[in-house]
């Protein structure tokens, strides 16, 4: 049996809670100077991201620890046209207990120590998810504002946010109007997100940029800054429905803007890659990116989330391999 990861200093550090939860981002007045001069060197970004997995290697106990930490940052998601209330309730049960008890025991972890960061669903299933997660402390996130295209009339978008908050959603994942980014209408983007933020009330707002649709890394960087200025609590890469979703390249451009925003305002904003993060190997790359670019605080769920569905099954498989030396079939670790 491998040594319990909890016996290693690396794991102790990874499972220590960050010093307090981050305060919400109140936003700032619209200020063109914070983003107008931003240009992103795509070749330099590619060189940087290409070294993430090669310069940092995690094996054995440290890898198991990082993967357990990743689970606590997953927004366990189902956004399919054939979703049912039964599927959502099963997903919520998995969020409460994302790893089998026998594996947690072998890793020296108590079952209640590990749960996912949130459950993310369409508005139709918010109330069912809230009921299924009652008492767990796991928040429900609702995709909103005409997800995934974001082309509904603006008043309907605001009403959709209102409805999800009324049903109990404590996080709202909105989609921005891509046209504003593609045409450089930054003031319109700011005003839109500002209104979404106001409609959310106490619910946290995650602004989805749909990076696969807005074409360039410079657009990604500028849109990131505008959404943070408007009060986004998180900036998120993708809906998961675009042709290209989360990548390390767009993520680097976004987290560099998070750092610039903190330098300018003192406010911390979270980051959520979503779409295509489906393997344990991939999520380790994103965790390393967060640690190296933003620091230890961005390994906690109040500042880092991963939008995923199949990722959890692969992490659980890797943990079983760590404990037993054998890989199991995916059906042994169902998500819903």
Brief rundown of the structure:
Pathway: Carbohydrate degradation; 2-deoxy-D-ribose 1-phosphate degradation; D-glyceraldehyde 3-phosphate and acetaldehyde from 2-deoxy-alpha-D-ribose 1-phosphate: step 2/2. The chain has 336 residues and is an alpha/beta fold.
Word description of this protein:
- By secondary structure, this protein is α/β, with parallel strands linked by helices.
- Helices cover 44% and strands 9% of the residues.
- An 8-stranded parallel beta sheet has the order 7-6-5-4-3-2-1-8, covered by helices on one side.
- It is globular.
Question: Can you tell me the overall shape?
Answer: globular
CATH superfamily, called what?
A: Aldolase class I
Please give the CATH class: Alpha Beta
**Span of the ends, CA to CA:** 29 Å
The assigned structural class equals alpha/beta
Q: How does the major sheet shape up?
A: 8 strands, parallel
Strand order of the largest sheet: 7-6-5-4-3-2-1-8
Give Rg in angstroms.
19 Å
GO molecular function, one term: deoxyribose-phosphate aldolase activity
GO biological process, one term: deoxyribonucleotide catabolic process
Keywords: Lyase, Schiff base
Pfam family, one: DeoC
């Amino acid at each position: 049996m491998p040594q319990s990861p909890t016996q290693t200093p690396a794991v102790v550090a990874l499972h220590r809670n960050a010093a307090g939860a981050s305060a919400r981002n109140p936003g700032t007045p619209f200020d063109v100077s914070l983003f107008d001069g931003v240009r992103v060197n795509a070749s330099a970004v590619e060189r940087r991201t290409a070294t993430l997995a090669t310069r940092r290697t995690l094996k054995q106990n440290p890898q198991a620890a990082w993967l357990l930490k990743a689970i606590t940052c997953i927004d366990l998601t189902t956004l399919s046209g054939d979703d049912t209330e039964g599927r959502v309730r099963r997903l919520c049960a998995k969020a409460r207990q994302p790893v089998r008890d026998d594996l947690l025991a072998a890793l020296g972890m108590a079952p209640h120590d590990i749960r996912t960061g949130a459950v993310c669903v369409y508005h139709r299933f918010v109330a069912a998810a809230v009921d299924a997660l009652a008492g767990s402390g796991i928040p429900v996130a609702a995709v909103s504002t005409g997800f995934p295209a974001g082309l509904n009339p603006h008043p309907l978008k605001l009403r959709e946010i209102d409805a999800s908050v009324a049903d109990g959603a404590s996080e709202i994942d909105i989609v921005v109007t891509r046209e504003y980014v593609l045409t450089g209408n930054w003031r319109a983007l700011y005003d839109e997100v500002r209104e979404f933020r106001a409609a959310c009330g106490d619910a946290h707002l995650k602004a989805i940029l749909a990076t696969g649709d807005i074409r360039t890394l410079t657009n990604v960087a500028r849109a990131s800054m505008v959404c943070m200025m408007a009060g986004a609590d998180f900036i998120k890469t993708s809906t998961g429905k675009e042709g290209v979703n989360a990548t390390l390249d767009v993520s680097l451009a976004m987290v560099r803007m998070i750092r610039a925003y903190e330098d300018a305002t003192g406010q911390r904003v979270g980051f959520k890659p979503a779409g295509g993060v489906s393997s344990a190997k991939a999520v380790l790359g994103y965790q390393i990116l967060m640690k190296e670019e933003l620091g230890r605080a961005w390994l906690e769920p109040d500042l880092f989330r991963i939008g995923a569905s199949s990722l959890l099954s692969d992490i659980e498989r890797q943990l079983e391999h760590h404990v037993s030396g054998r890989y199991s079939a995916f059906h042994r670790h169902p998500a819903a």
